């Protein structure tokens, strides 16, 4: 059943978990000759990149894929990578590959009548752990602590916070306030629930001595791991940090491709490898990275904080490996989780069930695509 069309849809929406700031993703629809459609997404994040992805997908990838057999996903993935050899498998090109690849896997599952995890090998787990993830409000700690109390009451077993409401007031900039917040969170969630703090090292930029000091001072609050404590590309710094502290180090969400993850792993500065199927060359890219993680006896988490499509891809990737930790999950209703699909993901006791539905297992509502469509 050959591919008939490949179409990209930039979307703009207010994100309740980011204090209602506007955010952007780009969806891709890959349609077969019989009308069966697969959907994918990339976390393009900004208006200019969302629009650029549409150009790359429709003018660069679509002509390569029309008439091809969508069952051969990995061959088509390599075909797209072959197209971008000059301008590189990162940035806008990687976003485009990610969205198209996810749509191809969704389409393949629908054509074969199989859920994604079975296409990836097997469903090894009936459910995967959801990590309630929010942007902190460092200027209103009462609000922030109330959120974490609510996470505990609604059944989450692992929770996460990072960044903040304004770039000038985010986690990682004020040592005293940061340590106070960690103490208050631990008091709010109790001793049995795990929690993660996200430094967003690309923006906060801790030095190695400061990172060592901070992480050691955070030890009494027993973080499951600390996320991006230093500049993401400072592989040597992460390795030295990992040797100096007891807390696990999580990083990787800002990598783009398999080679980037290979360099990260070879440097030895990570315990929990983060990846986003809407960024690092799609489900196929994540699949290759997971094999590297498994070979080194490490673990991974899914950085998935955009739409229900990305959530679905992450659920299936975690379900198909024994080395997955958990995945980011938006704890409150949001447009891309609850309007975009007719069967939104809902956690129960801190877990998401792995659906036995074809492809990604979500039913996309095209009226929501039209509602949030963004033309620039």
SSE blueprint:
Elements: E1 3-15, E2 21-32, E3 37-45, H1 47-65, H2 73-83, H3 91-112, H4 116-119, E4 127-135, H5 141-153, E5 158-162, E6 164-166, E7 169-170, H6 175-189, E8 194-198, H7 201-204, H8 208-218, E9 223-227, H9 235-244, E10 249-251, H10 258-267, E11 272-275, H11 282-295, E12 299-302, H12 308-319, E13 324-329, H13 335-339, E14 351-353, H14 366-371
Parallel strand pairs: 4-5, 4-13, 5-8, 8-9, 9-10, 10-11, 11-12, 12-13
Antiparallel strand pairs: 1-2, 2-3, 4-14, 6-7
CATH topology of the largest domain: TIM Barrel
Instruction: Estimate percent helicity.
Output: 40-55%
Mean pLDDT: 97
N-to-C order of helices and strands: EEEHHHHEHEEEHEHHEHEHEHEHEHEH
Q: If you compute it from the alpha carbons, what radius of gyration comes out, rounded to the nearest whole angstrom?
A: 20 Å
The H-level CATH homologous superfamily of the largest domain, spelled out, is Enolase-like C-terminal domain
N/C terminus separation: 34 Å
What structural category do the secondary elements indicate?
Answer: alpha/beta
Unreliable spans? none
CATH class of the largest domain: Alpha Beta
Q: Proportion of β residues?
A: 15-25%
Number of strands: 14
Strand order of the largest sheet: 4-5-8-9-10-11-12-13
Summarize the biggest pleated sheet.
8 strands, parallel, barrel
Task: Indicate the overall shape.
Answer: globular
Number of helical regions: 14
Integer tally of domains: 2
CATH architecture of the largest domain: Alpha-Beta Barrel
């Amino acid at each position: 059943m050959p591919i008939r069309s490949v179409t990209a849809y930039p979307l703009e929406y207010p994100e309740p978990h980011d204090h209602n700031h506007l955010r952007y993703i780009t969806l891709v629809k890959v349609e077969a000759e019989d009308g069966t459609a697969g959907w994918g997404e990339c976390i393009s994040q900004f208006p200019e990149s969302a629009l650029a992805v549409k150009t790359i997908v429709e003018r660069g990838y679509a002509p390569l894929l029309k008439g091809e057999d969508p069952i051969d996903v990995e061959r088509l993935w390599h075909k797209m990578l072959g197209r971008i050899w000059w301008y590189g498998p990162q940035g806008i090109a990687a976003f485009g590959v990610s969205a198209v690849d996810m749509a191809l896997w969704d389409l393949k599952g629908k054509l074969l009548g199989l859920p994604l995890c079975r296409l990836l090998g097997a469903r090894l787990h009936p459910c995967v752990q959801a990590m309630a993830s929010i942007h902190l409000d460092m200027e209103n700690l009462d609000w922030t602590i109330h959120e974490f109390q609510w996470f505990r009451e609604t059944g989450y077993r692992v929770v996460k916070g990072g960044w903040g409401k304004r770039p000038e007031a985010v986690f990682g900039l004020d040592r005293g306030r940061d340590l106070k917040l960690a103490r208050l969170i631990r008091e709010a969630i109790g001793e049995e629930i795990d929690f993660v703090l996200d430094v967003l090292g690309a923006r906060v930029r801790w030095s190695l001595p400061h990172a060592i000091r901070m992480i050691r001072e955070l030890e009494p609050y027993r973080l499951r791991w600390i996320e991006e404590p230093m500049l993401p590309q400072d592989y040597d710094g992460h390795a030295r940090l990992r040797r100096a502290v007891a807390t696990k180090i999580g990083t990787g969400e800002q990598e783009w491709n398999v080679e980037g993850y290979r360099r990260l792993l070879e440097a030895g500065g990570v315990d929990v490898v983060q990846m986003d199927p809407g960024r690092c060359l799609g489900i196929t890219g994540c699949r290759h990275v997971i094999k590297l993680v498994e070979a080194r006896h490490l673990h991974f988490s899914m950085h998935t904080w955009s739409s229900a499509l990305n959530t679905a891809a992450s659920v299936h990737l975690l379900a198909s490996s024994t080395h997955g930790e958990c995945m980011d999950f938006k704890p409150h209703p949001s447009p891309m989780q609850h309007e975009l699909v007719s069967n939104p993901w809902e956690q129960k006791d801190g877990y998401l069930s792995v659906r036995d539905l074809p492809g990604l297992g979500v039913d996309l509502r095209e009226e929501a695509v039209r509602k949030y469509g963004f033309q620039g």
